[in-house]
Amino acid sequence: MTAASDTRREAAPRRAASRTPSPSRRRRSFGRRQALTLLAFLSPAIVFVCWFTYWPMLQGARMAFHDWNLWDLTSTPWVGMQNFLTVLRDPAFSTIAGNTVLWVVGSLVPQFVIGFLIALALRRRFRFRGLYQALVFFPWAVSGFLIGLLFRWMFSAEFGVVNDLLMKAGLIDQPLPWLADPKLAMIAVLIANIWYGVTFFAIMILAALQSVPEEVLEAASIDGAGKARQLFSIVIPYISTTLFLTVLLRVIWIFNFPDIIYAMTGGGPANQTHIITTWMIDYTQQGAYGLASAIGLFVMAVLFVFCAFYLLAMRKAARS
């Protein structure tokens, strides 16, 4: 009797211990509850993004392979690659492709150079520097479409301030039709985009310049290095990664930035200011959603390549 009771007493703690979960099991259960809680909080945002972003993207990609015309939705047959071939065979394609390259390069280089010079000037301490910074950074807070409307008024042939200033300076004898002349229209939209994008480079480069150690520059100055030598031998190599990432990011934005062109010229005259994204908008307004979606897929493919380069550069910068 005593031996049996002792055996039962010894078995009871073992059964209790077996019912108590181990620390690793408790951690897994707690981690699972955390994941479910996190998923519950994120699910509304996930549904919102999928419904309003990824689902329209998939629908737009599907339209690129159908004869999808807004004015006749009774028949949207599958046409395969026909929309892409139609776009490539369009006589305006070569002009628009050249305009796109000119739009990106012609905007990027002046924006970078002017923005770099402004950042160098704002890096030095002087009176009212904060006010100057606010004035320089203000355009970045304004809508690109609004900037386009502003420059459309400035370059107007009838009452534009640009022609007025040029005539008062004696550089021209009569008003120039900036937005109606095929040779001048692209210059006008480039000037507008350069003015708008300089702020971005000034902000990014100024932030990078402030990370350059002053001790290194002082040591170089003591060793006899001038300002130009310090700039090209110390400052630019020190912030080279930031400069490369900023340029790459700006290329992506300019390529996919039709706002100013659309507000100023709408792609005219005679397609001379059309870039690939404004051309896509033009097809959309005509109701040719299939052709517009084909152009959209082309734009996405180009942006995907640039984004891949950007992510690879970011990863390399993080490792260095």
Structure, explained:
The longest helix is centred in the N-terminal third of the chain and has 41 residues, at 23-63. This protein has helices at 2-19, 23-63, 82-89, 93-123, 129-137, 144-154, 161-168, 182-209, 214-222, 227-238, 240-255, 259-264, 276-285, 289-319. Helix 4 (93-123) runs parallel beside helix 8. The protein has 320 residues and is mostly helical. The chain is flat, with a radius of gyration of 30 Å.
State the oligomer. Answer: single chain
Ranges with pLDDT <50 over ≥5 residues? none
- Cα-atom radius of gyration: 30 Å
> What would the average pLDDT be, to the nearest integer?
84
Q: Termini, distance in Å?
A: 76 Å
- The backbone outline, from C-alpha atoms, is flat
* Approximate strand percentage: under 5%
Helix tally equals 14
Q: Please bin the fraction of helical residues.
A: over 70%
Secondary structure: number of strands:
0
Main β-sheet: number of strands, strand sense, barrel status?
none
Q: H/E element string? A: HHHHHHHHHHHHHH
Question: Structural class per helix/strand content?
Answer: mainly alpha
Secondary structure layout plus pairing:
Blueprint: H1 2-19, H2 23-63, H3 82-89, H4 93-123, H5 129-137, H6 144-154, H7 161-168, H8 182-209, H9 214-222, H10 227-238, H11 240-255, H12 259-264, H13 276-285, H14 289-319
